[in-house]
Design brief:
Helices cover 30% and strands 37% of the residues. A six-stranded mixed sheet has the order 1-2-3-4-5-6. Helix 1 runs parallel beside helix 2. It has one domain: Transcription Regulator spoIIAA (2-Layer Sandwich). The model has no long low-confidence stretch (mean pLDDT 88). The protein starts with a strand and ends with a helix. Strand 4, helix 2 and strand 5 form a beta-alpha-beta unit. The radius of gyration is 12 Å and the shape is globular. 34% of the residues are buried. It is of the alpha/beta class. This is Anti-anti-sigma factor. Pfam families: STAS. InterPro entries: STAS_dom, STAS_dom_sf.
C-alpha cells in the first residue's frame, strides 16, 4: 500500500483481475502516487478495476492520471465516487471513461 499525503493506494491481484483501490484526495499533489501504481500495470495484468469510491476530491490532474491508464494497454474499468463521476461528466469524458457502480459489476462477477 502506498500513501502520499491524503491519498492511499492499494493493489489486490485476483485471478482475472487486478483491483487498485484509492482513497482520499486525488489531485495535483497526490496523483503521482496513483500514477506510479498504474504505470506498473500493462495488458498482462488482466482486467484492471480502479476503485475510486473512496475518493473525496478529484481535480483535472487526478482525472488525467486515470485517463492515461488505458493508453498503456490496460483494460481499465473504473468504479467512481460521486466526486469522480462529477469531474468525469464536467470534463466531457464520460463516454471515454464509463463508470461502473461496483467492483463486482466492473469484473463481471455480480
Amino acid at each position: 500500500m502506498t500513501s502520499k499525503d491524503d491519498l492511499v493506494v492499494g493493489v489486490d491481484r485476483t485471478p482475472g483481475a487486478t483491483v487498485v483501490t484509492a482513497t482520499g484526495e486525488l489531485d495535483a499533489n497526490t496523483a503521482r502516487a496513483l500514477d506510479e501504481r498504474l504505470s506498473r500495470l500493462d495488458a498482462t495484468s488482466g482486467v484492471v478495476v480502479l476503485d475510486l469510491t473512496g475518493i473525496t476530491f478529484c481535480d483535472s490532474v487526478g482525472l488525467a492520471c486515470v485517463l492515461a491508464a488505458p493508453h498503456r494497454g490496460v483494460d481499465l474499468r473504473v468504479v467512481g465516487s460521486r466526486q469522480v463521476a462529477r469531474v468525469v461528466a464536467l470534463a466531457g469524458t464520460d463516454t471515454e471513461l464509463p463508470l461502473f457502480p461496483t467492483v463486482a459489476a466492473a469484473t463481471g462477477r455480480q
